[in-house]
Amino acid sequence: MRIEYNQYHQPVTDHKLAKSATHVAEEEKQLMQKQKREQELERQKKIAEQLKRETEAAKERMKAEEDALKIYTTCLEIARRISSGDKVPTKDHQFLVKHDPALYGKALTMRIPKEDPKEYKQLSEDEESQNKQQSGISEEISEPTSQDNSSSAVDIKI
């Protein structure tokens, strides 16, 4: 048996159906693009939140480092005063022992006695004096006074 191709047979297409199929395909494409944009937006929001958390953590670390640096510079200044043979208040000695006992020991070991030592005001009293210390250490130096008997200095002679 033989089947012949009929030339008169043409496929019938429904133009409305074809248009709706392309319309559906375009809508799917637009929906996919919208979903991709939303995913990208969510990803960027997560990145922004992560950066914000990291920034806050860095600020806290920086504040802690700044405080530690203030304490260390105060310790160095107290040690310098002790090693130069000047009279340093007892509270400054205690501050140095509390924060850096090794530096305190070195400062006492390197102490050079003076005939006329300078007497300093307390450096470690509060944050205001630490801020002054950073702006100008020389401004805090005072002449020896007999009024302030409470800030006795440790004087070691060899």
Largest sheet: 2 strands, antiparallel
Span between N and C termini?
A: 131 Å
The global form is rod-shaped
What's the order of the H and E elements? Answer: HHHEHE
Secondary structure: helix percent: 55-70%
- The overall number of domains is 1
Overall pLDDT: 79
Strand order of the largest sheet: 1-2
Residues in β-strands, percent: under 5%
**Cα-atom Rg, whole angstroms?**
40 Å
Number of helical stretches of at least 4 residues: 4
Can you describe what's shown?
The protein has 158 residues and is an all-alpha fold. The protein has one domain (15-142). The chain has 4 helices and 2 strands. Strands 1-2 form a two-stranded antiparallel ribbon. The radius of gyration is 40 Å and the shape is rod-shaped. Mean pLDDT is 79; it is low at 137-153.
Q: What order do the helices and strands come in, and which of them pair?
A:
Layout lengths: L14 H69 L6 H10 L1 H9 L9 E2 L6 H9 L5 E2 L16
Antiparallel strand pairs: 1-2
Helix pairs in contact: 1-2, 1-3, 1-4, 2-3
Concise structural overview:
Residues 112-124 have a biased composition (Basic and acidic residues). 61% of the residues lie in helices and 3% in strands.
Describe the structure using short key phrases.
158 residues, 4 helices, two-stranded antiparallel sheet, 2 strands
